[in-house]
Specification:
Layout (H helix, E strand, L loop, with lengths): L5 H16 L13 H24 L3 H7 L2 H28 L1 H24 L2 H6 L3 H32 L5 H27 L1 H9 L7 H27 L13 H31 L7 H19 L8 H27 L1
Length: 348
């Protein structure tokens, strides 16, 4: 059995959180590209090219494993990954209605709960895990984590409210639509973890072939491929309707050098998105007996570092002092939850 360390696992989840939190920053560097054009390129790298490249590098007999893996986990992981693809689209649209901070926090918060609890209900172990040594400590850590996420969400809501009020307010209908889309995005994001759990037999095959801690890279491509198929169909159709696909060529009026830079920035965004789950897989293996806590830990890391990056980029510069204090307290609560979950995992 490959040795594990919850401390190292928590640190790896943190690296994945930094990667995920910064993956949309490169979009700001693209020039005269629509969101759909950017999304097609980043999706190709995030969900196809990078998973294949890293899979080939880290998993012995990568293609052999995929070819001979049982069909049931392959199709289950693929279809659930496709469901996550719809969630990612809902996420993008909801930002336009209620803003990034509120959308991100609510979606990730819902995902943390759904992606942690449902796999335990589907595959069993809900009671056994929490009654085992260290189980109650992990449960307390998860509850603290959710409280921290809620605090960040409330701070994000206050920030968005202050900004929208300064711009004349937000329509109630827009808020309702945005919240509905955010709930859909959060639930389907949690489904991605269920997709990874259904793909575990593929990872087990990789482990037998000597993949070690990199076993998760064998199953990741199956889940992400489902996500990619849904997104590429949607955004290609959208690109045809809105005539934005020409942004890939000089017919759009863009210089070839600008297009090349846009592609590189989009590729970086997709690579950063993939790296979050590369490190998630490594962290997941290292959490030992309490691997199920990986999802809520990972989602909490996303929230934590996304707000840290927001502070660094001075997105919170002009908020009310009480709102800023609330954010700081919520971030400290999240940090304490990381420590508690790691400690409980070590006890187990």
């Amino acid at each position: 059995m490959v040795p594990t360390s919850p401390i190292i696992g928590t640190m790896l989840h943190a690296i994945g959180g930094v990667s995920a939190s910064s993956c949309y920053v490169p979009f700001q560097k693209t020039k005269n590209w629509s969101w759909g054009t950017f999304w097609l390129v980043q999706g190709l790298f995030a969900w196809i090219l990078m998973p294949i490249l890293i899979g080939v590098i880290t998993v012995p007999d990568f293609f052999f494993i995929l070819k001979h893996a049982p069909s049931k986990p392959i199709w289950a992981a693929f279809l659930l990954g496709a469901a996550y693809g719809f969630g990612s689209m809902s996420f993008g649209v909801s930002i336009q209605y209620i803003g990034y901070s509120l959308t991100y926090t609510l979606a990730i918060g819902i995902s943390a709960i759904v992606g942690t609890i449902l796999p335990l209900m589907i595959f069993g172990g809900l009671v056994e895990y929490f009654t085992a040594p260290g189980g109650m400590v992990v449960l307390v850590g998860m509850i603290i984590s959710i409280l921290g996420v809620a605090g960040c969400g409330w701070a994000g809501f206050r920030r968005e409210h202050e900004m929208t009020m300064a711009q004349g307010g937000l329509k109630r209908s827009n808020m309702l639509i945005g919240l509905i889309l955010t709930i859909i995005a959060g639930v389907l994001s949690g489904v991605f973890n269920i997709s990874l759990e259904f793909g575990q037999p593929i990872a087990d095959m990789a482990a037998k072939h000597g993949a070690g801690h990199f076993e998760g890279n064998a199953k990741l491509i199956v889940s992400t491929a489902g996500c990619w198929v849904v997104n590429v169909i949607w955004f290609v159709v959208l690109g045809v309707r809105k005539k934005t696909l020409k942004e890939f060529t000089t017919k759009s009026g863009l210089k070839s050098s600008v297009i090349t830079k846009n592609i590189l920035w989009s590729a970086l965004a997709g690579s950063l998105w993939f790296l979050q789950f590369f490190f998630y897989g490594l962290g997941h293996v290292n959490m030992g007996k309490f691997q199920f806590a990986s999802w809520v830990l990972h989602m909490s890391m996303l929230i934590f570092f996304s707000y840290i990056i927001g502070v660094i980029m001075k997105e919170w510069k002009n908020v009310n002092r009480n709102t800023y204090i609330l954010l700081v307290i919520a971030l400290l609560v999240l940090v304490s939850s990381f420590c508690v979950i790691a400690y409980g995992s070590m006890q187990g």
